[in-house]
Fold this protein.
Amino acid sequence: MIYRQPPALALWLLRHFGPRYHHESLEGDLFEQYQRTASRSWYWQQTLIALMLAGADWARARLLRIVATSSLRLFTEVAALLGAAALTQTLRFQHACASQRLWDPALLITIAAAIALVMSCGFYLSLCVGRIRGGKRGSRQAPTRQMLVAFLVTALSAGTLTWATTADVARCGQQPCSCQSPQASPTAPQTSALSPIR
Amino acid sequence: MRKREYLGQLELMVLFAAMRPGGDAYGVLIAREIAEKSGREVALASVYAALERLERKGFVVASLGEPTAERGGKARTYFRPTAEGIREAREARETLIRLSSGLTQLSSGLR
């Protein structure tokens, strides 16, 4: 007996993007029904419904993870930028007030936070590159969890650096500074604006 | 009072249809049964989606048949209601009867 073959493209779509639950039985049921009464349009209609149901399942299962990962990426990048800005400020004040605070505990904390920031940024970048290249196929939760770790370390180090910068600003404002820059030294003579131009 | 798994309308229809043919219910038969009894065409993929939910809730069990040429070399999957599924169907039916009893709108033939 010769059987009518269903539309090849519809069959291909069903096999590759259709529902995973008993998919061979669904394909067989469609084939069986197609032999009896159905037309090509009926087969296409059934295939499209199957694809929509599979797509809805896919979105429902992954939507939460996509939102969580995207939010973590955004927060990590913002924290890294804030940390880099705070580090720049800290370095500027370190340079300005270098003579007074060589082995200051705050300085050691700043260095540790800066190292943690650089490492977490490196880890975050490696995660992003890994995802672009396809990454490891394994636990589905792993990237989100690793992204959370990267975010926490970045946020913690950025927060520490911000605290260190604030402390530096407060200290540098209270104590006389060895720097020569008129902007960095609050005790510098204020007469430059009034002095005659040579 | 035990926690109940509430069934949707399609799930309930699929469960009733799976009980009917006597142990050899599969996708095409279930869809045909629903179409005949309710007058509504149901897509095969929707029937399978409902069966997946019912199987996950433990109301039906699936068993694989032999592949046949008339199905393009694909096997049938037969679905059989479990004891819990039958109890759930009975309770759902009784609840619907209790809820609908005494409703004058239903008995007077209003549409």
Remarks:
- The CA atoms of residues 92 and 167 of chain A lie 13 Å apart.
- Residues 184-198 of chain A have pLDDT under 50 and may be disordered.
